Prior knowledge:
Strand content of chain A: 25-35%
Family (chain A): Belongs to the ABC transporter superfamily. Macrolide exporter (TC 3.A.1.122) family.
Structural class of chain B: alpha+beta
GO molecular function, one term (chain A): ATP binding
InterPro entries (chain A): AAA+_ATPase, ABC_transporter-like_ATP-bd, ABC_transporter-like_CS, ABC_transpr_LolD-like, MacB-like_ATP-bd, P-loop_NTPase
Helix content of chain B: 40-55%
Number of strands of chain A: 10
Strand order of the largest sheet of chain A: 6-7-8-3-9-10
Organism (chain A): Alishewanella jeotgali KCTC 22429
Helix content of chain A: 25-40%
Largest sheet of chain B: 6 strands, mixed, barrel
Radius of gyration of chain A: 18 Å
Order of helices and strands of chain A: EEEHEEHEHHHEHEHEE
Radius of gyration of chain B: 30 Å
Number of domains of chain A: 1
Oligomer: heterodimer
Shape of chain A: globular
Structural class of chain A: alpha/beta
Distance between the termini of chain B: 35 Å
Order of helices and strands of chain B: HHEEHEEHEEHEEEHEHEHEHHHHHH
Number of helices of chain A: 7
Number of helices of chain B: 14
Number of strands of chain B: 12
Number of domains of chain B: 2
Largest sheet of chain A: 6 strands, mixed
Bound molecules: adenosine-5'-diphosphate, magnesium ion
Keywords (chain A): ATP-binding, Nucleotide-binding, Transport
CATH topology of chain A: Rossmann fold
CATH architecture of chain A: 3-Layer(aba) Sandwich
Distance between the termini of chain A: 39 Å
CATH class of chain A: Alpha Beta
Shape of chain B: elongated
CATH superfamily of chain A: P-loop containing nucleotide triphosphate hydrolases
Amino acid sequence: MISIKNLNKAFRTELIETQALRDIHLNVSEGEFVALTGPSGSGKSTLLNILGTLESFDSGEYLLDGQAVQGLTDRALSALRNEKIGFIFQSFNLIKDFSIYDNIELPLRYRGFSSAERKQRVEQALERVGLAGRRSYLPGQLSGGQQQRVAIARALAGSPRILLADEPTGNLDSLMARQVMELLEQLNREGCTILMVTHDPEQARRAGRHVQIVDGMLSEATVYQPLAVNQ
Amino acid sequence: MQNFSYYLRLSLHNIKRAPLPYALTLMILSIGLGVFFSNATLYYWMNRDPLSEQSHMLFFPRINAVEQACDSCLTPLRVLSYKDVQKLSSSAIPSAQAGMFQSGGYARVPNTQNGPTPVTIRVTQRDFFTLFNAPFLHGQTWADNEARMELILHYNAALKFFGRTDVLGQQLLLDGELYTIVGVLENWQMLPKLYDVNNGLAITPVEEIYLPWETAYNLGIKSNSTTQSRDSRNYNENFAVNGREGEFYQAQFWVRLDTPAQQAAYRQFMDNLVASEKEAGRHPRPNGNLLHNMLDIAEAFNERNRQLDAFAMVSVLFLLVCLFNASHLSLNRYMASQFEFSLRRALGASRLQLQGQLLTDVLVNGVLAFILALLFAVLMLLLINQLLPATSALNNWQPGLILLMFGVALLASYLVTVYPAWRASYSPLNQQLKA
Ligand SMILES: Nc1ncnc2c1ncn2[C@@H]1O[C@H](COP(=O)(O)OP(=O)(O)O)[C@@H](O)[C@H]1O
Ligand SMILES: [Mg+2]
């Protein structure tokens, strides 16, 4: 599904150059649930943005579904984002003066679906996240957890193959975080590949796989071993 | 196309989000455009060809017939004498020709209580109305170029004096002389009034009353604009003789020469005329013959309206300043919506699709600015009408001009939208989406 080799990324400003990612290797197979952890500023978001083609990289190789991403036209990249990838952000990124319905419908608008198909997909996604009754609410009228579920519905509506979630529960209290987490796990069980940045070790443990970034370098985290084994 | 209605909805939604800054942007844009439009309208009317079907056949001949010898005087006077008109009229080549000058007087309807009212007069000959396509509502032009106490009224003058237009056979008292009305023109105007550019390309209406040429000379009616006398006769006395025989220059003369062959023949006629005059010892100055086409007449008389050119320049500069300001305001608007831009990009909108959105913004802004600007332009033109009489024609816009102005509005809206939007859409995507 995702195959990254020798990927490097640096941010250059007039004064400083930050090497955000160094020589990254990462393979993610279809249906995996990967948790990405690491200290703040270690390059997690940068990696996720590159995976989501929101950000370019300096060197290396990135194959998505066997297709090289580098060199694709803007049109092809947009289509790829639109059809294969669903984004979930820490800060939800809903449009405040759009209804829940219009927010979820937004990516579908750029895909050329008929209005009937859009409607069906939005309704389904709303159903899926348990917010069918709130379609005409504004984001501000919902709790944080509900807003994040709207964002997930928006990501889901286009039936993406991959969900990229950058600290999706970072702004939520633990109860809401658990609900969101359960939703993601359920989606994963239904076949969706998920890459999720998180600070929560509990969440990382529950994911099928856990990778760590430190200083822009990626490593597979040691599998959690219960103490009992050593005794 | 199905996206267009979505883009349109978003454009309107965007306006509703920040109505005040938007209104300000739109206001600045449409004031700039309105000033530009009203100037463009003036400019258009004053630079257009008022007789496109025949202007290429209308010519103004000038001969260097002043009777004092002067070898270095190569250019004829701007006005012609009675004798010049008579000599030039002797050619059979033109299909129409008329001498003319502008005058003024006081007129009133006899046997009424109404006092005399000032009127503008054109003294001219039979073919005037053919030359310049002045259509008759009632009656017709004089049967020939002889003197007769008959006048032709402009539509507006008929209404002014009689309150109606079917006044053939009625009488009018003009400076103490009684005339019979033999024709009433339609509500005709000629802008610019190229048959008389002696006083510059002013925005003046066509004259209210048309008098026969010979009658005017009989009665001593003279031009009230450019006149020149080059001898010692007293032109306030016995004008019927002095005006005809003396060196009193006051007239324009127009001929219609239908084909290039006729134009060449007419030039030849003028040269022959000067040659035979010289033989008779009457044309001491060099041959300075000129034959101006109607469309070159303003340039030839150096009467292009430079003020109008200056106004046009200023209005363009003003428009640029407005564009600059509107663009600045618009930049703020787009910067505020940068987040949404980035979000849409992240969710899969291509640059092309976002450009579609922007072009829809351009269209919406263009249409709104256009409508507002037309309103401003109408107000400006009303003001101009107050200051300059006779601009009534300026109030009706030709479809071509409207289309052109709409194009300018769209272009202006494009300029105001594109730079800010470009700035906004090329910001790093991920920056905007972070918490
Ligand atoms: N647009 C940018 N310009 C310059 N530096 C950036 C930019 N985005 C991220 N960085 C830097 O790259 C490094 C990695 O950032 P990021 O991927 O956001 O870290 P994380 O998500 O792990 O906290 C940080 O040092 C950050 O300052
Ligand atoms: Mg981050």
